[in-house]
Amino acid sequence: MNNNKKLKQYELKILDKIVEICNKHNLKYYLAFGSALGAIRHSGFIPWDDDIDIQMPLDDLIKFKEICKKELSSEFYVQDKLTDKYYYNYWTKIGLENTTWMPKARLVNCKYGICVDIFPIFKSKDTEEDKKRIEKYTKVMLRTTAKYYVINNKEYSFGKRLVHRLIPRFINNMMHRYALNKLNIKGNDYDSLVVTSMDNNRNIYFKKDIIIGNKKLEFEKRKLFVPNDIDAYLKVFYGDYMKLPPKNKRYGHDTGNDIIYDFDKSYKEYMEE
């Protein structure tokens, strides 16, 4: 079995556990980005892709992480800014312990197991005031999350790295929690859902009916929730999404043999080496 196929099997194991918890506790989830595209175009993974992305309204994601503390076995881990000191992405990961998916040129020593990404989506009213709230506090969320990545990345200016170094971790985390609290609108009194783009950290506003609904598509022989108006959703990110990209653009994350995969050895052992 080649690495790509085995990697997908491990990721599906994680996905099944996430879906099981969401279904049990009536939490909303939707396939996102390339996984949503894979569902409609390939009924599963994009053949050359090698990860799974899902998204959840922030209030459901917060509940999900609390439930995981009680119901997720030690085989899995939850990774976000507040559970892993050095983690530097704004989204949550559910990973498998005793596995490795690690960039060889890693800049920070966070957890690097095989994982599935869960992206928060933020509720917003269609007012200028509420848009300002979203823009302000997503910036705080992103900046506080990036602390150790910026410190260890010499591509950033000395001044920017120094600012992150001088802010104590407890203040950084306090600012991060405060931002998430300001972004966490509960209930159904909202008009839009906001997705933060991975590519440029730009906030994209969708009418809530584009995402919220009960539409399911097949994904690797599973029926999973996707954005309700998946056509409108995918056109924002991919344009003519049913058209295959040229062969030289068909690649996953490991484009230059720069990722360490190990299905039986923990990332911790690689760090010790």
What is shown here, in short?
The chain has 273 residues and is an alpha+beta fold.
Task: Please describe the topology of this protein.
Elements: H1 3-25, E1 30-31, H2 33-42, E2 53-57, H3 58-71, E3 76-79, E4 92-96, E5 100-103, E6 115-124, H4 128-145, H5 147-151, H6 158-166, H7 169-183, E7 192-196, E8 203-207, H8 208-211, E9 216-219, E10 222-225, H9 230-238, E11 259-262, H10 267-272
Q: What's the number of extended β-strand segments?
A: 11
- The domain tally reads 1
Mean pLDDT: 94
Strand content: 15-25%
Separate helix tally: 10
Distance between the termini: 27 Å
Flag low-confidence runs: none
Order of helices and strands: HEHEHEEEEHHHHEEHEEHEH
Secondary-structure-derived class: alpha+beta
Shape: globular
Largest sheet, strands/sense/barrel? 7 strands, mixed
| Oligomer state of the chains in this structure | single chain
Please tell me about this protein's structure.
The protein has 273 residues and is α+β, with helices and mostly antiparallel strands. It has one domain. The protein is 41% helix and 19% strand. It is built from ten helices and eleven strands. Strands 1, 2, 3, 4, 6, 7 and 8 form a seven-stranded mixed β-sheet that branches. Strands 5-11 form a two-stranded antiparallel ribbon. Strands 9-10 form a two-stranded antiparallel sheet. Helix 4 runs antiparallel to helix 7. The longest helix is centred in the N-terminal third of the chain and has 23 residues. The protein is globular.
